[in-house]
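Hi Y.,

Following your request, here is the sequence exactly as I used it, all 192 residues.
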Amino acid sequence: MRLYTKSGDKGKTSVIGGRVEKDAIRVEAYGTIDEVNSFVGKAISELDKTIFNDIITDLEKIQHELFDCGSELSNISAKREHKLTEEPITYLEEKIDELIDEAPELERFILPGGSDASASIHIARTVTRRAERLIVSLMKAEEEISPIPLKYVNRLSDYFFAAARVINARLNVPDVEYERSAKVFRGSNKKK
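Below is the corresponding structure, written out as C-alpha cells. Let me know if you'd prefer a different format.
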C-alpha cells in the first residue's frame, strides 16, 4: 500500500460521499478533531498506568469516539451513518461528576498547566473548543448535520478540564490560580 495518492495535489480531498476543498469548514472541523485525538494520545503517553489507569481507560475510549465524531463530520453522502450516539455524552457527564468530586475546591480561574500530562490535556481542551466553534460554523453552512458531535465536544472539553485538575491533584502538583481572577466559582464544587 502506498501512503501517498497524489489525489489531493490540486486542493481537494476525499470525504465520505465525494470530494471537497481542503480548506472547507467540514475539513477544518474533522481535522481539528484529529488534532484533539493526537493531544489525547500524547497525554496517555505521559500518564503512569499505576496512578491513572482509570483516566487512561477513559482517554482511550475517547480516542475511538473522536474517530467516530470525525467520521460523522466527514460524511457528505445522502446516507449518513451515525456512529456517535448519546451514550458517550452521558458517560462523560458521569465521569465529569466523579472527577469534580475528586479535585480540590475551585474558586478562581486557573492557568493551564502543571504536570506534563495535565498540560497536554489542557491543550486538548482548548483545541476541542476550537473544534466546537468549527462544528457550529459547519452546522450553519450545512443543512443536515447531526447535533450529537456538537454536544459530544462540548462535554468533552469539560471532561478534559476536570481530568487535568485530577491529574495534577494525584501528582500533588497544585493548580495555579489566575492572579487577577475574582471568585468565579461560588460555593463548593463538591456534591452535597
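The chain has one domain: 22-74+84-170.

Thanks again,
Q.
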